[in-house]
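ARCHIVE CARD
Drawer: 12
Card no.: 0347
Subject: one protein chain, sequence and derived structure
Cross-reference: see card 0346
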Amino acid sequence: MSAGAAAFLAAARNAVLSALRQHDLVTATVALERLSALRDSADGAATARARAQAELGDLWSLLRDYARARMHYDRAIALSPSESRYWFNRAAVLRFLGDLSAAEHDYDEVLRLTPEDAHAYLNRSELRVQSADRNHVPQLERALAAAHGWQSEVPLRYALAKEYDDLGEHALAWQHLSAGAALRRRHLQYNARVDLDTADWISAAYPASLSFSGGCQSEEPIFIIGMPRTGSTLVDRILSSHSQVYSAGELPDFSAAVVAAVQRLLGRDAPRQELIAASAGLDFTALGEEYLRRTRPRTGNTPRFTDKLPINYLYAGMIVRALPNARIIHVTRDPVATCYGIFKVLFEKSTRPNQLFSYLRYYYQASRDFRLLSMLPDGVVGHSASKVYDFFQNMSSIIGEIRDAETMEHAIVFAETGHLCMSTLHSNSASQTLDRIINFFPEERRKQLLMDLSSNLKSIISQRLVRKEDGSGRIAAIEILLNTPIVADKLLKGEFHDLKEIMGKSRELGMRTFDYSLFELYDNGVIDYDEAIRNADSANELRLNIKLNSKRSPPSNTGIYHQLS
């Protein structure tokens, strides 16, 4: 590579990194497009080109364009297949894309290349529910026995806790979980007083009695705030199941916009207390507009979007000034459930159970002290996740068409929370509909998916438009499957081939097969014989039913579908 080309690459790379440091995704995206083009045209040794492609994958991942990130990781692995980091990063991207089977394959490859990679063990364990005949417990136990250092032991114990819990070995799961958490905590320092002081400074800067006006008038953002593991993701999925709401994930953009604006205002770095006090003097209209700009290009394509970064609760007073028409949902949960939910996950910063309760106490004290709820307008939903679900209890959801796993996942989540969800899907029958749903997801999701369908499916109504005998148009022949106990059992077992027979024997319950619907249409003189036989699932069975039970006799000349005897 020439010196000039190298200089161009270095400048393009620095432009991307500079924009990312400022959380300016719009500028970062443009700069990364340019860097990608330069990298793709660069020459050099295979290992150097592999590193360049992997870096592009890393950068596109930071911008959450996981499809493009995967493309670059694919190229890096093709150029240098023995580099485990490329496999590890592609596995993470595949996880975001929902291709869990491929992600597990990549983690297997990571562990073949670097058997000591403890985080690969943990990430792999979290991909699916482990079963008695398909788990990694023996391999994890061997890895734990050979582990050197707490950095390896902690994720291995969390992985074992996850897999033992899946297998119903709860005592062993707790043993590894508590040991792993205690070991992690010994290497952390956390002082809740710092966070409580921060809340005091915010309360002083944004008193509830302070009046305000102006702000950016956009109604796009919906902020979901609260402790981790309180149900914010489920609330986000419920909201984003609506066609007018886009789930933007956990955006760092509001806090980044605040910090940048305060630093410009002061002209220098300052201690946290001074930064918070100075923030009350910001131009909040400009702040709201800058936040929206930073969320682009991911947002702006739907009337609303969700931002579920939990720590945004610290910025609630600023949010209502900068974006007075935004909605804020504060999600809470039972303290014990919240603490245990956090305890089971190896966050970057973990703690012990008794300190989790202390942290939770400080969190709610801080929320109360700066009046997180009382200082906000009526647009705030400051309730537990269960009350948010209640808000939707009398609502139903209509999803125009299910074409992919993500949309199907939204429908299942909405149904799981007790709401009626209706949608369409291109298929010819109930059994084909179920096959399509199953095929949206990887094999390891099959067992859980069958359980979800067995528990939550209400009915499948299929239709075929058939020609009327009088030539006046078409009419629907309808198949109806209802989820009775016997149907639920067949769904749980994946025995879809038995459903047609069950529908045929359950007309008194409201079910019907296509063939029976065609029989009725023919028997009532709506369609002719040829049309009925042409659209039948089982032409011979329909012929026999017409011959034995119809008040209309089949014509002597039945065209190309005539029966030879």
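Annotation on reverse: Confidence is low (pLDDT under 50) at residues 350-359, 365-395, 558-565. The first strand starts at residue 221 and ends at 226.
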